Give the backbone structure.
Amino acid sequence: MRKYKLLSLLSLSLLTAVAFQVTSCTNDFEDTNTDPNRLQEISPGTLLNPLIYEVATSNMYRSWSYNSELMQDILTFPQTSYGIQHYNLSDNIGSASWNTYYRWMKTAKDIEAAAVRVKDANYEAIGITMRVWMAANLVDLFGDVPYFDAGKGGEGVIYPAFDDQEAIYDSLFADLERANELYDSKKGMIYYQDILFNNDIAKWQKFTNSLHLRLLLRISNKANKEAYPKMVAMLGNPAKYPIITKVEEEATLLITGVNPNISPWSRIQDFTLSRKMASFFIDNLNEFKDPRLPVFATQATRMENQKKVNIGYKGIPSAFEGSDGQFDYEASTLNNKMAANPTKTAILTYAEVLFIQAELAQKGYLTGAEDFYKKGVQAAMDFYAVAMPNDYFDNPATAYDGSLERILLQKYYALYMNDYQQWFEYKRTGFPKLPKTKTMMNNGVMPSRFPYPLDIRTKNKTNYEKQIQKMGGDDINIKIWWQN
C-alpha cells in the first residue's frame, strides 16, 4: 500500500515537472529526438511532495509504534511479553526510521542540487530545511551516524564512515543559517503546490527558523555552544528570523484521505488493535479536567449487572506487574479518529514554539513565562480544534507554578504523536517524571538511543566496528552528545 501511495505521489509530481520542462519542437536534431513523455531533468519541486508525505506519515506511525510506549502514552495490551514499555528494545527497533531518513535525505539533497542548477534559492532553502529536519532526528535517535559522505554511492562512496554527532549538529546550524538567508519572498515558488504550506514561502521560512529554535534548545545543556544567547538573538530579530506565530503557520501535514494522501494505517482497526491508553497519560488529563480527553481516547467500561457501562477515562499502568486479568475493566483505548482519514500529523507546531519561549522565560532569558505557558496550552488545544474552558488554569494541576516541570508536562501533551519529540525532550530534561515498576528492564532506566540497525552491522561492517569500539559498545544507555 505504501509503495502504491508513493508511486502516485511521484507520478503527480513528475507530471507537474514535465509540464514545466517539455518545450515545443525545433529543427535541432537533439530536440526532435527527445521523448516528450520522459522527464529529462528533475525540477526542484518534483520530489518535494513525496518527501513531505512519506517522512511525515512514517514519523506518525513510528511515534505510535515506539515513542508512545517509551513515553507512557499507550501500551501493548494484553501483555504477551516484555516489550518497549519495559525498556526492552530489539536490536532492529530503529531500522525503519534509519532507512526512511536516509532514503529521503538523499531526495532532499537532490532538491538542493536541482535548485542550485536552475538558480532557485527558495527551493534550495527548502531542500536544506528538510534535510536538516531528518538528519537531526537521526542523530537524536542513534548518536554518531554516517552523514557527510552518506548518499554518495554514485560518487563511489559505498561505505560511509560514522561522523561525530556534535560536528553534524554544528553543520546543521550552519545550514539553517544559510537557508534563512536564501529565502526570497519576491520570487515565491513556481512549481506544483506543495502539500505542507501550499507554496507559501513565508511559512517555509518560519518553519526553518522554528526548527532552528528546536535544535538550539535541544543542545542547550552544553554551555560552550551558547544556545540560549543565540535563541534570544533570533527571537529579538523577527525581521531577520521570522518564526511560527500562530496555528495557521505551523508545520502540519493535512492528510486529506484522497488517494495518495491517506493515513499510514490502511486498516484503521490496526491503530487500536492490542493497544490501551497508559495510566500516566490519562490520569494527568483527568486531573487537568482536560477537554482533549475524548480526542485522544475512548471511555473505559465495566460490566455491571450484565451490562457494559462507561466508567470514564481510565488507562492501565505501563509495565504493570502481575497478570492481565487483574484489571476488572476494559481500559480506555486510542480514539481511532486520530488515524482515520481525514487527519493530520504534526511536524513542528505553534504550541512547541510557545513552550520553547516559556522555557527560555522560566530560565530568565525572556520575560513572560506564564503568558507563554498559557498560550502554549491554548495552541495545543487549538491544534485539535478543542475549546479550552475559561477556568482551565484555576486548577492547581494546570496553573503555572514557575517550574520547568510544569511547562514540560504540558509540552508532553502538545508533542503527542509528533515523531520522537516526547522522547527527545525527556532525554534532555528528565521531564515529565514517568512512573517506574519492578518489571521494567534496563534497571528501570529510560534508554538513551536505539541500537544501530542489523543490516548496517553487516553491510558497513568495518565502519560499524570502528564506531562501536569508539563508543564502547552498541549500548542503548550511551547518551546522545547533548544529554547531561
